[in-house]
Amino acid sequence: QESSTPKEKHEYQSDVARLRRIVINSLYSHRDVFLRELISNANDALEKLRITALTDKSLLQAGEPLNITIKLLPSPAGTGEAGRVVITDTGVGMTPEELTQNLGTLAKSGTSDFLVQAEGASTSQQGNLIGQFGLGFYSSFLVADHVYVASVPAARPEGGEREQWVFASGAEDQSFEVYPDPRGRTLEHGTEITLVVRDDAKEFVDPKKVKELVEKHSSFSTTYPIYLYTLITEEVPDEEASSVPIAESLEHEAPSASPKSEADEDSEAAIVEDLPEESEDTAPVTPPLPPMKNVTREVYEQLNDQPPIWVCDAKTVSDEEYNEFYKSTFKDSHDPLAHLHFAGDSGSTVSFKSLLYIPSELPPDFWSSQMSRVNGVRLMVKRVFITNDLGDDALPKWISWLRAIVDADDLPLNVSREQLQSTKFLAQIKSILVKRAISLLQKLANAPPSINEETGEEEGGAKYKEVWKAIGSAIKMGAMEGSAGQKNKLGSLTRWATNTREFVGLDDYVSNRKKGQKQIFYLAGVGQRAEDLAKSVFIEKLHARGYEVLLLTEPMDEILLNSFQRWGGLTFQDVAKKGLKYGDEDLDAEADKTEQATLAVRFAPLLGWLKQEYKGTVMDVVISNRLVTSPCAIVADQYGYSANMERLMAAQQRTAKDSANDWMAEFARKQRSLEINPKSPLIEGMLRVVQGLDWEEDVLSDEGDKPSREITQAEFELKEVAQILLDGALVRSGFEVSDPNTFFSRVDIILRRSLGVSETAQAKVDVRPAPPVETGPLDWNFKQHEPELEFKEDPFELGDFDYELPKNPFSQEPEAKAFDEAQGHDEL
Ligand SMILES: Nc1ncnc2c1ncn2[C@@H]1O[C@H](COP(=O)(O)OP(=O)(O)OP(=O)(O)O)[C@@H](O)[C@H]1O
C-alpha cells in the first residue's frame, strides 16, 4: 500500500502511546484476542449503520449486504512478512477526520487513571486490568508490524464526496499517517483493516487457526455473517495441454487410472472385490497420466452459520459456550458466575427469549456513578440489535450489574426505543428481568452444598459464596431500597458473619435460635474485621452461653437490619445497647431474682460511689448481665449512639456540620451507662476500698459537684482507678476516650506506683537539634550517593525537658519544677 499522494503525519496522543505499550507488553500470551476485538468493532460499525439507516434511508440501499469478511493472504515473496489478515466490514465507515480522531486518540473516560494503575502493575495484573478496560483497535499491534485501515463513510460528508482514506501506522511508531487511498475506491462503504502479520505470529494467517478463534470467541457475538476468504491452490488436470480431452480419455480407462484421493482408493478397493478375477498373465493396462496444472481458487466460507446462542435450545449449549459468548458480548475478561437462559412472555403478547448473566464483580464505577440509563441489557428484535438504552425503564441501580440479552419475536424490526416506551413492553421486560435475576440468586443461595466428584471441591452453596463476595453489597442496597416484596426476598439473600459461623442467612439465624429467644442479636463495627468484633466485650456472655450474634462490618448493615424492623417474628437487638434479653430469664426467675437482689445490696456502696464519681459522664452505673470476664462496659441507652453509630455520625458531621447534629451527638453521648461485672476481681477490689471509706454522709450533705470533705489518700487513688476504669470501658466498648493524654498520664502513674518508681521523677531528655539554616546555593544535580552531612560532636548542650504529671497531694517527694515552654524554646 505504497502511496505517492502526500501523506498527513500525526503524532499519537501521549495516552495512546502508553496504552499501546502496555497492551503489547502484557498480552503477548493472549495475542489471539486481537481477532475478537476487531470483529467486535466491525459488528459495532454494522449495527451503527443499520440503526441510523432506519431513520436515514439514503445510507443503505435495499439488499445491500451487511457482513464481515476475513481474508488471509500470502505475502509477496521476499518481503519477510508472514502474510496478511484483512478484516472488512460493510458498516458505517469513517471519514479522514474520524480516522485521525478515533484511532489516534483515546476518548474513553477514566483513561488516565487506568494508565497510571496499569503502569504500576505487574505484567499479569496488567493483563487483567486491560481485559476490564477493553483493548479495541490497538490489539492489532499484538500480531502486526504494520496496520493499514482503509475506510469509506456510509454518510456523505457535508458539502463533499465520499472518499476512501487510509490510516497507516507501525507498531513502534510514535506517529501515524492519514492519506487518500492510492488504490482509489475499493469499498462501497465500511472499513478494511489490513494487518501485516509479524513472522512470530504467522499462525494467525492459517485458516484453521482463524476458524478456531472465530468459533471460540465470536461465533455467537455478531448476528452478521462472518466469511472467511482464502485462496486455495489445487492440482487439476490440464485439459488444454492434453491432446485427448480428459473426459473422453477417462471414459475408456480403468478407474485406477484417475488421480486418486484416499476416499477413491477405499471405494476402489470395494469395487475390486466385485470384479472377476483376472489371470496372472493378463497385465493391467496402464493408461498415460494426463498433464496437471496448479489452479488457485477463491473460497468464501461462512464461519458463523449457527443461530445466535440465545435462540438455541439450552440443552445444546455448553457452559463454556455461554461463558465465551458473555465475554465477547459484554467485554469482560472474566467468566461470569452464573447464567439463566429462558423464554418468556412479556404479558403484552410479546414473546421473547432471554439470557441473563451474573458478572464476577461489580462494574468499577458501580458505587461512584450516577444512575446510568445505559446498562447491560441488550434489546434485540428477531436477533437484530435494537438498543441498550432502555431510558426510564433501565434496571434499578442496585441491579445495574446484571448483563442480559432480550430478543423479542413479535415486534417490527424497525421499532425504536421511543415507540417501545409508549407500549408497556420495556417496563414489563424490566420487571421480568429483575424477578428472574432474583430467582436465579435464590436458586444459587439455596443450592445444597454438594461435592464435585472430579475435583473433590464443594459446590452448590459454595457458588453463592462467590456471588455474595462479588455483588453482596449491591444485594444489600436492593434490600434497602427495593419494593416491599423485593425487600423480603433480597433480605433472605443477605449473608452475615456471626461469632460462631461465617456465612449465615437471616432465615438460617432464626431457625437456629435458642428456646425463648425473641431477639436477633447483632454488633456493628464499621471497618472492623468480623473476627475482631467477635472478641468484643459485648459478646462475651452471649458467646459463652452459645447464642449467635450477627457481626456487621459495612456502613449500611445496621441501617439495613433496622429497616426490616423484624425478621421471622424476632426483633433486632444491638448487643452494645440496653434492652438485651436472652429469652430464658423466666426459666430460673426465682434464683436469678434472689441473686440480683443480693448483688444489688452487696454492691450498693460501690454503685453509689461510682455514680457520684461519674456524674455528668454516664447516665447510670448498673450491675451487668452481659459480662463474663471483663470488669465493665459502656452500654448505650435505647436512644443513645452505639460506638459504631457514634463513629458514623462523627464522619458525617465532618462533612455536614450543623448545630442540630452537634446537639444530637452531645445528647446521644450522654445516653449511656456503665455496666460493672460483679464477678470481676477488680470490681470486688474496688468494692472493698469503697467499703473502707467514710464518704456517704459527706456526699449527702454536699450541694456542689465536689465534696467539701477531706479526701483521703485511699479515696484519691480509687478516683484515679475509677477514671482509668471508665476510659478503659470506653475503649473496650469501641468508643473513643475524650482525652487520651490524660488517660495515659493516669496509666503512667499507676504503673509507676506498681513498680515503686517516683511518681514525679522526670525523663532525661537529650536531643540533638538540627544544624543551623543552610545559606549556601541549592545543588540540583544530586549525585547518586549524597555525601553525608557532617555534625559536630554534641554541638549543643540541651536543658532537660520536664513533663508535667498530675500532682499527687499525698506524694512524699518534693514537687518537681514545671516545664516552662518559653524557657525551653529560648534554650533551643
Ligand atoms: N471497523 C470500524 N468501523 C468504524 N469505526 C471503527 C471501526 N473500528 C474502530 N472504529 C472507531 O474507532 C474507535 C476506537 O476503537 P477502539 O476499538 O479502540 O475502541 P472502542 O471500540 O471505542 O472501545 P472498546 O473496543 O475498548 O470497547 C471506535 O469507537 C470507533 O468509533
Question: How do the helices and strands line up, and which of them pair or pack?
Answer:
Blueprint: E1 8-11, H1 14-26, H2 33-55, E2 68-73, E3 83-89, H3 96-104, H4 111-119, H5 123-133, E4 144-152, E5 165-170, E6 175-180, E7 190-197, H6 207-218, E8 226-237, H7 246-251, H8 262-274, E9 292-302, H9 319-330, E10 338-345, E11 351-358, E12 374-381, E13 384-389, E14 403-408, H10 417-422, H11 425-446, E15 450-451, E16 458-459, H12 461-481, H13 484-493, E17 495-498, E18 504-505, H14 506-511, E19 519-524, H15 530-533, H16 540-545, E20 549-552, H17 557-564, E21 566-567, E22 570-574, H18 589-613, E23 620-623, E24 632-636, H19 643-655, H20 659-670, E25 672-676, H21 681-691, H22 696-701, H23 713-732, H24 740-755, H25 821-827
Parallel strand pairs: 2-8, 12-14, 19-20, 19-22, 23-25
Antiparallel strand pairs: 1-6, 2-3, 3-7, 4-5, 4-7, 5-6, 8-9, 10-11, 11-14, 12-13, 15-16, 17-18, 17-20, 21-22, 24-25
The structure holds adenosine-5'-triphosphate.
Region (Disordered): 250-269, 799-828
Keywords: ATP-binding, Chaperone, Nucleotide-binding, Signal, Stress response
Protein name: Heat shock protein Hsp90
